[in-house]
Design goal:
The chain is of the alpha/beta class. It has helices at about 15-25, 45-55, 70-75, 80-100, 135-155, 180-195, 215-230, 245-255, 280-285, 295-310; strands spanning about 10, 35, 60-65, 105, 160-165, 165-170, 200-205, 210, 215, 235-240, 245, 260-265. It contains ten helices and twelve strands. The termini are far apart.
């Protein structure tokens, strides 16, 4: 698909991932972009979803908006995270179908995978068990977008695709302790400890769980590549293809931030899913996506952005 002259709506386009997707679209000379803001459109309400479509008249719709957070936020808001993510996706895709949108790009979550998925996670394993309990409501709500996309493709011919990014990190991430994921949380703890000369930082869990992380600019490039080149019903993982234990991650971030104190692990808090690393071969095969940012380089850029932007 040639996107240059298409009217493209990007929900969540002012957020963490969305900013980078908008930048990537502009980089390839897409000039007809519409980024709805939550203060102007409440996408949980059907009449406002309809108004968005009336006003933006999209040819292509990229749905990135989500109500999301780390393990703590998921434990405190299971009902809200389920309902708000589900209703947004359902109504946005239904209006795309009714209005003849040329392509709908739905962004899922690695939280949709079963808790004990064999490593590396293959897309065919998505339905082989229940997600990890702390984020299951969020993960299942987002997984329903895959069901809807496949059903609408089969019955109505809607060109809807579904992408599954792994945990993201990078500039513009949320460093709010109530919402942040593990990398921004660790960066904030370590940088703040350096600034205050604290002797310790406390981290949730045992550190034994492992995670895969994808630099946000790489993810944005993958989403745009898929929007241009991928037109099939099968879900597609977007990841970097390697994992790191949380304990090793904390030590790495401590070194990169200059924190030389002690890391204290709070084993009364949950680790979440035991392991998480994706099989990324389908994305490379179908639309030529491969992550290119070395992990340590991406972490350094993120730490620098945090110090310059949030501490200035």
């Amino acid at each position: 698909m040639d996107l240059n002259n298409k009217r493209i709506v990007i929900t969540g386009g002012a957020g963490f991932l969305g900013r980078h997707v908008v930048e990537e679209l502009r980089r390839i000379n897409c000039n007809h972009l519409f980024v709805p803001r939550s203060r102007d459109y409440d996408l949980r309400k059907l009449e406002q979803v309809r108004r968005l479509y009336d006003e933006a008249k999209p040819d292509v719709f990229i749905h990135l908006a989500a109500v999301v957070g780390g393990i703590g936020a998921n434990r405190e808001n299971p009902g809200r995270f389920f309902y708000e993510n589900l209703v947004m996706g359902v109504e946005l895709m239904e209006q795309a179908r009714l209005r003849g949108v040329e392509k709908f790009v739905a962004i899922g979550t690695v939280c949709a995978y079963p808790k004990f998925t064999p490593v590396p996670f293959k897309e065919d394993d998505l339905w082989n068990g229940y997600p990890e309990e702390t984020n299951a409501p969020y993960g299942l709500a987002k997984k329903m977008l895959l069901v809807q996309a496949q059903a609408y493709r089969e019955q109505y011919g809607l060109n809807a695709i579904y992408l599954l990014p792994v945990n993201l990190y990078g500039p513009w991430d949320s460093f709010d302790p109530a919402r942040s994921h593990v990398i921004p949380a660790l960066i904030k703890k370590c940088v703040d400890a350096v600034e205050s000369r604290a002797a310790t930082v406390e981290v949730w869990g045992t550190g034994a769980a492992s995670r895969e992380f994808l630099y946000v600019e790489d993810c944005a490039r993958g989403i745009v590549l898929a929007t241009r080149h991928y037109d099939r019903a099968l879900p597609v993982n977007l990841g970097a293809g390697h994992e790191i234990k949380i304990r090793e991650l904390a030590q790495l971030i401590a070194r990169l931030t200059g924190f030389k104190g002690e890391i204290i692990w709070d084993a009364t808090k949950p680790d979440g899913q035991p392991r998480r690393v994706l099989d990324v071969s389908r994305a490379e095969r179908e639309f030529g996506f491969r992550a290119t940012t070395p992990f340590e380089a991406g972490l350094k850029r993120t730490i620098e952005w945090y110090r310059q932007t949030l501490l200035s």
